[in-house]
Design goal:
Length: 520
């Protein structure tokens, strides 16, 4: 004698063996029970439940006007367009109140229920809703699949009790000779209602997110041992991320060692599959040991938010990371540096970095390492900037610095380490440093051949060199050589003008003198 559990509760207990068992059964409120002749709804008290109708009456109407009874029982109203179930549908009803109240014991392990829910969520046109509450589990399912939608309602806490990664969305590593796996269009949580991941010091990483494309992910990490947010590859996704000691302290005192890590995909070549065009709106990373490591990047965008109070380091942009763009983000109260850059084409726009540097060769508000190339700092307030030997092509414009009287702009060793500085304001000393716009016509000898006449930019800002007229030997074209700051000479063929960074040189080989103008 079959008992049909109601869909919205997802009770799913074993079948009742006979009509007597149906008549005696007391189920949870709103559960539908189908007997041999009648249909009942349970109220939690009445044996057999409250009669609704005869099966024969329903069957006649269903056959003529409605889908089958089984179809009605298996799909709620909102499922007419999209199959929609809650995580509680996969959990025994006896635990629902404790989950909602947050009093469920950590010894309860919902790993099987989570796995069932993940399997459901991966089906086409399905949507998983997670009501507010605490959900303890020891093994994370892999939630990654195309167009998975996980909607959170209220304060949703995934309380992980295992030793691996607490929340996994993994489309897989690259395999040589095969098409690389991806998932597209995932939606997990929302900025106002993220999934909260609670891990202990036994938890390795709070999250593992690999090759998620065109997706929108909202997560809040409350504790783990190693990495709060580990992102491997991914294209054109938005990550709303928060890991903050200010949310009531770390769960069980588990301070993450790293806030954020971005990495190329495992199995790809060294320069292949960097995370690209990922957007991080309002990231909040506070009180972890190190704010993050950008180990690989094709193009990343950070907008606003804060990375502060990190007990060991701020954010490190590592060699091999290209085009990291940080706009309006606050860096302060970090031990050691706020930002340590060894990337290519890093841009800092309207940021604040307040670190005070006791040893300017090793620590700084913004520290440019030996592999930092073409960093641009615009309209920012940074107490201290230090460039180590080897940093190249750094440009600042609209910088406010030395807020506390112990900062500055420093170049530490090496002729290659040169800043181009425009419109810099020393706050503590109330001084402005700028290159006044100017136009200078160089005085050249009548001829320079075969040895070139060399002009070197000795200013602290870039200059533009224009050349008009002039001729080489026999009336032919002039020759040009370019000399880098490291002294490397190379022949060039400019078209109209040449842009020189501080310390760079341009040489002219001619027999008929040209007109050479330098513009700042």
């Amino acid at each position: 004698m079959a008992r049909q559990p109601r869909q919205l509760a997802g009770i799913g207990a074993s079948d009742l063996p006979n009509q007597a068992a149906v008549d005696a059964y007391k189920g949870p409120p709103r559960e539908i029970v189908v007997g041999t002749e009648t249909i009942h709804i349970q109220d939690g008290q009445t044996p057999g439940g409250i009669p609704l109708a005869r099966r024969s009456d329903v069957a006649v109407k269903v056959d003529k006007t409605l889908p089958s009874l089984a179809y009605l029982l298996s799909r709620p109203t909102e499922g007419k367009i999209r199959e929609r179930r809650t995580l509680l549908d996969f959990i025994p009803w006896q635990q629902h109140d404790q989950i909602r109240a947050g009093t469920i014991a950590e010894t309860v392990d919902l790993k099987d229920s989570m796995a069932l829910a993940a399997t459901f969520a991966k089906q086409p046109f399905c949507e998983l809703v997670i009501p507010g509450g605490v959900y303890p589990y020891s093994v994370s399912p892999n939630w990654a699949a195309d167009h998975v939608r996980i909607i959170t309602e209220g304060n949703v806490r995934f309380r992980y009790t295992g030793t691996e990664d607490a929340f996994i969305c993994d489309s897989g590593p690259a395999v040589p000779g095969q098409d690389a796996p991806h998932v597209f269009g995932m939606q997990i949580g929302s900025p106002g209602s993220p999934i909260i991941i609670e891990g202990s010091s036994s938890t390795r990483n709070a999250t593992f997110l690999r090759a998620l494309n065109h997706s929108d992910i909202s997560l809040n990490v409350r504790g783990c041992r190693e990495i709060a947010f580990y992102i491997e590859f991914g294209v054109c996704s938005v990550f709303h991320l928060r890991a903050s000691v200010n949310d009531g302290g770390w769960f069980k005192g588990a301070r993450p060692a790293l806030g954020l890590v971005t990495q190329r995909r495992t199995g790809d070549a060294t320069d292949a599959s960097p995370p690209s065009f990922l957007v991080f709106p309002n990231p909040v990373i506070e009180g972890v040991k190190k704010a993050g490591e950008i180990r690989s990047a094709g193009k990343l965008f950070f907008f606003h938010g804060t990375m502060e109070a990190c007990t060991e380091h701020g954010l490190e942009i590592m060699r091999g990371a290209d085009n990291v763009y940080i706009h309006g983000t606050d860096f302060e109260v970090n031990a050691d540096y706020d930002i340590y850059d060894n990337g290519n084409d890093t841009q800092l726009v309207s940021i604040q970095a307040l670190a005070q540097a006791p040893d300017k060769s090793l620590t700084s508000g913004v520290l440019l390492g030996a592999f930092s190339n073409n960093m641009k700092i615009r309209d920012s307030q940074i107490n201290n900037i230090t460039a180590l030997s080897g940093a190249k092509n750094a440009v600042t414009d609209g910088l406010r610095y030395n807020m506390f009287g112990n900062g500055g702009i420093y170049e530490v060793g090496g002729a290659n380490t040169v800043f181009a500085i425009r419109n810099a304001y020393d706050i503590a000393n109330d001084k402005t440093y700028d290159a006044t716009p100017s136009r200078t016509v160089l005085t050249l000898p009548n001829s320079a051949s075969p040895d070139p006449y060399m002009y070197t930019n000795t200013l602290r800002c870039p200059v533009t060199v224009t050349v008009v007229g002039g001729a080489g030997s026999g009336g032919g074209p002039m020759g040009y050589v370019f000399k880098s700051r490291s002294g490397v000479l190379a022949e060039i063929n400019p078209t109209g003008f040449v842009r020189l960074q501080p310390g760079e040189s341009l040489g002219f080989i001619y027999t008929t003198k040209p007109i050479v103008t330098v513009l700042t």
